[in-house]
Amino acid sequence: MELALEGITKRFGSLVANDAIDLVVAPGEVHCLLGENGAGKSTLMNVLYGLYRPDEGRILVDGRPLELTGPGDAMAAGIGMVHQHFMLVPVFTVAENVVLGNEPTKGGFLDLATARRRVRELSDRYGLAVDPDALVEDLPVGVQQRVEIIKALVRDAEVLILDEPTAVLTPQETDELIAIMRQLTAAGTSIVFITHKLREVRAIADRITVIRRGKVVGSADPTAPENELAALMVGRSVSLGVEKVPAAPGEVTVQVRDLVVRDAAGTRVVDGVDLDIARGEVLAVAGVQGNGQTELTEAIVGLQEDVSGSVRLVGQELVGRSTRQVLEAGVGFVPEDRTHDGLVGSFSIEENLVLDRHRDGAFARGTAMDRAALRRNATELIAQYDVRASGPSVAAGTLSGGNQQKVVLARELSRPLQLFIASQPTRGLDVGSIEFVHRRIIAERDAGTPVLIVSTELDEVLALADRIAVMYRGKVVGVVPGGTDRDVLGLMMAGVPAAEAAQQAAAHPSEVEAAAAEAGDGEGTPV
What's the pLDDT at 420? Predict the structure, then answer.
């Protein structure tokens, strides 16, 4: 089936998310849609899947116009979609999830035997290895993604849209997904692969279309150098590496011992973690999202309620202190959700820049804020951190994601620190903002501050880390040097101990890494 989009335009108020986009997906090919977060990739695919109606343009299937009033029409036309956030019911079995909304019946009752048989057939045909009777909540994330693929295939999808499919996968699960994609395309299925990760594009794509700010800005061959692809994405030349000198760690001033965090149900989401961080080094915590990394940072900062163990900062115990007391002890914190936890969107930039210092004599006169001092502070930091805004009085919520993150960074780094913590520091940022954030993190390290970074992006971990702690199901699997092979890290992210992971990785190198090496352009740190 050949799929074509002609002149697709989608507006949200004054924002043009898709601007006259043309795209052709040939039968049996992997067509990669490459672009930064916010470029309009997912919007375009939501139009193709019938979730949005285009304001202009049309969709053609084998040369015939296709009218979509919803996802049901798309599925009936042979278009399936696996969303970035899975649409599964955790307490249902695989078979029940697969037929949900399209249940087979026999004698007026649900025919689960047919559903199980269909799952087994598709699982065997494409090497998906999924048990139809398994509960979804018991399955690893990579297997849950296979369930989503089966959901599309059971409805006879001939075009499969994968929206940022590797965002929650380890490198080994990514390799498994690539193998599945090759099986699907060999059988004639077309795949639209939406991503912002350059390594993966080069490993799997047959064709690449690049979108920037809602427009198609070019196409490229999968063998194109990473810096060329990045330049197309951003519109200018970019450095994909982080320039830094080797760390010169000083004394260990951060000591985490037997740290335990329990959730509301009493489950140990952080389970006996021990970590040391020295002055002048970056310790990065790697792992698939949801393995206790968020709770670890929040426990250190005093944002978790049920915490035991010890966190000592320059000899002072932090466990049991309030968040305000922790910040006053010299901890800077960039939370993973800047919109909800890092900023007050309705407050001005100048107010957000003193959220944790508004009681200081420098910014207050008795019970009143010193507006002139706030303005001077904001003017200086806006210039220093290159915050793009019309002025200090602009509401922080009106800024772009990159500029919001710069405001959070400016606030946290503009005071003397004994520890700097950044959780997912570049999530949702453009390449230019990522460059800036990375430079600031390394500058803080070089100033002698212990730095703790949490990131699910292995490229970011490898770019910044002097040492890497890998978390799996609340435990630290191991702590390894910053230059550790990403295949080893990927296995550790699945719970394999470091020594065993090194042996397995040597025996089974990653397909993504092999493709990058074959292209001869593995230098730098890809986006």
Answer: 97
Query: Reduced to 3 states, what is the DSSP secondary structure of residue 397?
Result: helix
- Please write the tens of the pLDDT for every residue from 446-465: 999 999 999 988 888 999 99
Q: What is the largest CA-CA distance in the chain?
A: 78
Tell me the C-alpha to C-alpha distance, in Å, between residue 424 and each of 247, 262, 488: 21, 22, 21
Collapse the DSSP code of 502 into the 3-class scheme (helix H, G, I; strand E, B; otherwise coil) and give the result.
helix
Structure-token pair, residue 8? 């697709």
User: Cβ contacts of residue 331 below 8 Å, gap of 6+?
Assistant: 300, 301, 313, 318, 417, 418, 419, 420, 421
Per-residue confidence (pLDDT) for residue 518, from 0 to 100: 54
Is 334 strand, coil or helix? strand
Contacts of 266 (CB under 8 A, 6+ apart): none
* Domains defined along the chain, listed by start: 3-234 (3.40.50.300), 239-330+416-484 (3.40.50.300), 346-415 (no CATH)
What secondary structure, in 3-state letters, does 81-125 show? Answer: EECCCCCCCCCCEHHHHHHCCCCCEECCEECHHHHHHHHHHHHHH
- Residue 64: CB atoms within 10 A of its CB come to 8
Cα–Cα nearest to 86, from 168, 5, 12: 168
- In contact, 35 and 231? CB cutoff 8 Å: no
Cβ distance 469 to 277 under 8 Å? no
Confidence of residue 361 (pLDDT cuts 50, 70, 90): low
Q: Are 512 and 200 in contact (CB under 8 A)?
A: yes
pLDDT digit string, tens, across residues 74-129? 989 999 888 877 789 999 999 999 888 777 778 778 888 988 998 999 888 888 88
Q: What is the mean pLDDT of the segment spanning 123-139?
A: 88
